Amino acid sequence: MSTLKMILVDDEPLALDFLRSILSKIEGIEIVGQCKNGREAIKLVAELDPDLLFLDIQMPGINGFEVVKALQSDTMPMVVFATAFNQYAIDAFDLHAVDYILKPLDPERVKRAVMRAVERLQVQDIEGRKSPLIGAIDDIASRLAVDSQAADSDGREVRELPEGMKRKLLIRDSGVIKVIPFDDIDWVDAAGDYMCVHALGETHIVRSTLRELMGRLDDKSFARIHRSTIVNIERVVAITPLQKGGSLLHLAEGQPLKVSRNYRESIRQLFK
Q1: Residues 219, 178: one domain?
Q2: For helices 13-23 and 107-123, angle between their N-to-C axes, nearest 10 degrees
Q3: What confidence tens digit (pLDDT) does each residue in 160-186 have?
Q4: Could you tell me the pTM of the whole model?
């Protein structure tokens, strides 16, 4: 098989060492990076463009689920979760065909996960990778919600807005309606039937299409930088050109986003 570039993420050094020792015995693997927290993982994925991410779920600060939500759909690697999570998560992973390995790690199970990732890389394009992950995360959040909240938490945007709310996005989250001003939105990316709205360091999952959301947002402030990614240009603080074309946008919250070559010129014109 072709070489598979991987990043390992776990807050436990011994777990990282054990996983690396297991993977070293599998041919065609190149570990291009490893890190011990979610913030480092987000940065490394943007910089190293791996094929596969072995990702621990339970980490302090930014956990594994939050890492997935923060990654750009258009550059999303395959993900294998390492977890000692409860049965709700396992059921959701199985339902949405999300790969996972239960802790303590078993060498044979790790090898099978790598083989499955290789098979999926051959048949699944990048745009289809984030959708099942977000679906599983959303499903887990719904299952764990209190029944009284769950009845009113379909995750859909509230669309009937009074005049004074036209520059705000209303999102249901576990029975609570959150009001998000457009100016607070950093970027948005599409993951199948879900939209990930990133605002002030938080990610809100909305069941919507990209076209519907683009119709709501102010086109003078928001621009498309990839097929599935929209950015608030007011939140961009720096632009770095990339060797293979395109560029990297750095946002006020520190999130790096890739601009595809198809949108490079239009973005350049915006920042002339």
Answers
A1: yes
A2: 70
A3: 445 555 678 888 766 678 888 888 999
A4: 0.85
